[in-house]
């Protein structure tokens, strides 16, 4: 499903965010990407959804070489990938419902199914009662759930999460992690970047460890 072959990403002709990375992630896996700030975690995720291109090597997703992927195929690729950001990236002038509605309209979901899809997704995450709330009226954990709902509402095959528990309290973090486990149980591939190695270790899932752009280890911890 996802394959990195000798992938390097260099910024400014001298800073290697990633160096000679070789990994393969199969459909249905739950994978943590760990490492300190600057390890290359975010860059790795950005390469998967083609927000960046490798300086060297090949990144394949769903069998597509992302470097040679035709531009008209990129939106189709991204519709199959949900992304959850640490800083939520919500539209603060819109309610939780309107944030989700906007994301569905952008990808051309028929208006006739939008309302039910949003309702089902918000109820699934336990935030149905917050549909009319603006982001500033929500706690950090609730904002993260809206961000997660926005990613899930597309029914993605891959869910990428960049430090999704970094801005919420420990109880909220544990709840978010449990939701990711449930999502993975339904067959969605989950890739979660975190600097919290204790969180990754407690999950007993595969862990790809990075440091200064280098792959340090890859396996269960």
Alpha carbon gap, first and last residue: 22 Å
Strand order of the largest sheet: 6-7-8-3-9-10
Shape descriptor reads globular
- Which range does the strand content fall in? 25-35%
Secondary-structure element pattern, one letter each: EEEHEEHEHHHEHEHEE
Number of strands: 10
Overall residue-averaged pLDDT value: 93
Short description:
34% of the residues lie in helices and 28% in strands. The protein has 221 residues and is of the alpha/beta class. The protein has a single domain, classed as 3-Layer(aba) Sandwich (Rossmann fold).
Characterise this structure.
The protein is α/β, with parallel strands linked by helices. The chain has a single domain, classed as P-loop containing nucleotide triphosphate hydrolases (Rossmann fold), CATH 3.40.50. The protein has seven helices and ten strands. The strands form two sheets. The chain has a six-stranded mixed β-sheet, with helices on both faces. The protein has a four-stranded antiparallel β-sheet with strand order 2-1-4-5, covered by helices on one side. A hairpin with a 3-residue loop joins strand 1 and strand 2. Helix 3 crosses helix 4 and helix 3 packs parallel to helix 5. The longest helix has 16 residues.
């Amino acid at each position: 499903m996802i394959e990195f072959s000798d992938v390097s990403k260099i910024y400014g002709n001298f800073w290697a965010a990633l160096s000679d990375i070789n990994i393969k992630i199969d459909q249905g896996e739950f994978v943590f990407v760990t490492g300190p700030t600057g390890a290359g975690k975010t860059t790795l995720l950005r390469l998967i959804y083609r927000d960046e291109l490798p300086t060297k090597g090949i990144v394949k997703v769903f069998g597509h070489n992302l470097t040679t992927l035709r531009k008209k195929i990129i939106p189709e690729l991204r519709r199959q990938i949900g992304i959850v950001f640490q800083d939520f990236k919500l539209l603060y002038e819109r309610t939780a419902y309107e944030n989700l509605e906007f994301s569905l309209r952008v990808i051309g979901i028929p208006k006739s199914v939008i309302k039910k899809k949003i309702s089902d997704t918000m109820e699934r995450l336990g935030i149905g009662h917050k549909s009319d709330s603006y982001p500033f009226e929500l706690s950090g954990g609730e904002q993260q759930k809206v961000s997660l709902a926005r990613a899930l509402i597309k029914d993605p095959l891959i869910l990428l999460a960049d430090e999704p528990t970094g801005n919420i309290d420990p109880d909220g973090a544990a709840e978010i992690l449990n939701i990711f486990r449930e999502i993975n149980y339904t067959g969605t591939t989950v890739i979660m970047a975190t600097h919290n190695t204790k969180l990754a270790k407690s999950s007993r899932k595969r862990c790809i460890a990075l440091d200064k752009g280098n792959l340090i280890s890859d396996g269960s911890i």
